[in-house]
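#lab-general

N.A. 3:47 PM
ok so I finally got the sequence cleaned up, no stray characters, all 334 residues accounted for. can someone with queue access submit it? mine expired

B.Y. 3:52 PM
send it over

N.A. 3:53 PM
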Amino acid sequence: MAKGTKGIAVAGTLIADTFYKIDTYPDAGNLTNIRDIVSYIGGTGNMLLDLAKMDPSVPLKVSGLIGDDTQGRMMKGELLKYPNIDISNLTVEGLSSVTHVMNAQDTKQRTFFYQGGASDIYDESYIDWETLDADIFHLEYLLLMAKVDGPDEEYGTLGARILHDARERGMKTSIDVVSEQSDRAAGIVSAALKYTDYCSINEVEAEAATGVKLTGADGLTEEKVKEALLKLNEKGVTTWAVIHCPQCGYGYDCQKQEFVKVPSLKLPEGFIKGTNGAGDAYLSGILYGAYQDMTLEEAMILGTACAACSLSEVNGTDGLRPLSEVKKLYQELR
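B.Y. 4:20 PM
back already:
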């Protein structure tokens, strides 16, 4: 791999995460008080902002669909704060995708209500390939986009077709998926893996995609993780397969046929303010490492540091910082 020059293109789900601070989650038919409402950009927006903060010199290009509504205007405004994010392939139409998060103050439990909106109608027709010319093309989230996850006679799913078409234009490809344990997960993800160069997912997503049971009575089993990484390679991943979990990151360099293990950082008590967006932050480190021709181990170290940065703040992106500060945090906490 050579260092990229054309940037990273990100296509897929832009979501507004709207948090409702409530006294308690009520039983059916009962009432509770909403004490505060705040909205942040989510979905692909998390990773785009993480990359933009980490290195403003990297060209970032987004293909997405947002609604002509309050949440859509908020997301567009957040993206416009970063000069290196090109939103010329951002379409405004219909209703935004929104995750409504009920944050109960008594139990500290969060309950999620997802409104598909734009994610349900996004497909390849919204992609301007000339605008999205890049070194790496990243598609997310599989299992959350109705049309992209839908069938395609030639490639299995429309998502697989999109990844194929990105490769035909000379781009390396990457995917991310949502954590869904379902019968459909393996088929949808497997179709996409045939046209994927970089795959970074968590242990729940890896189980669903590969069918390999990763956990036993004593927790995560390293040998099973290695089996799942090899399965991702067998299913089509050409370059890096990565499985991350709260305790550790595991990777497989498909070209060197080498396994890599990078433990999570030892975070001091009180360091973690929120977990929303930590997986996106980890992925931003992996993609940045691929773009900058790092080794897989170097990219996983960076991903681990980015995830720790994300955990330091409540929302998905406030914790990310410039690359030098991300690296400094890793050295301080390793």
